[in-house]
Design a protein that fits this description.
- This protein is mostly beta strands and about 140 residues long.
- It has a single domain, classed as OB fold (Dihydrolipoamide Acetyltransferase, E2P) (Beta Barrel), CATH 2.40.50.140.
- The protein has 2 helices and 6 strands; from the N terminus they run E-E-E-E-H-E-E-H.
- Strand 3 and strand 4 form a beta hairpin.
- The protein is globular and about 75 Å long.
């Protein structure tokens, strides 16, 4: 079985292209934090290229921005090609079957942090506060 699930932040805005046959493809790279710190105590990340095809590719191109978190489910693909200098090159990438937005575009500042300030924004979405009434009718 070849299945991979990743959650990370986009390193740059997605790139959408069309093949010669008219199929749409979207490419982007996500930074995925490693679950441990290095010898200096700093966290490191892996930069993983993601490929999305079809209608989902259009959705990615229109909806995702640099720094936004995304959850990707797909398969790992390793392919090779011959470079112009005659050497053999290897490419490892994830072909996405599905993805989920972890942050909405409107809630996102684009700098890797949510645009909302937290509790105050959460509470303001529910209207005005109701005063507490000490007399409960039961």
């Amino acid at each position: 079985m070849n299945k991979i699930i990743l959650m990370g932040r986009l390193v740059r805005d997605p790139e959408v292209r069309y093949t010669q046959t008219g199929k749409v493809v979207c490419q982007f790279t996500i930074a995925v934090d490693r679950p441990f710190s290095n010898q200096e105590g700093q966290r490191e990340a892996d930069f993983i290229p993601i490929i999305v095809w079809g209608k989902q590719a259009e959705l990615c191109g229109n909806s995702l921005t640099k720094g936004q978190r995304v959850l990707v489910e797909g398969r790992l693909q390793i392919r090779s090609y011959d470079a112009k200098d005659g050497s053999k090159r290897w490419v490892t990438e994830v072909i996405a079957n599905s993805f989920e937005f972890i942050e909405r575009k409107g809630d996102f500042a684009g700098s890797g942090a949510p645009a909302s300030s937290g509790k105050a924004d959460f509470e303001s979405g529910f209207g005005s506060p109701v005063p507490f009434d000490e007399e409960i009718p039961f």
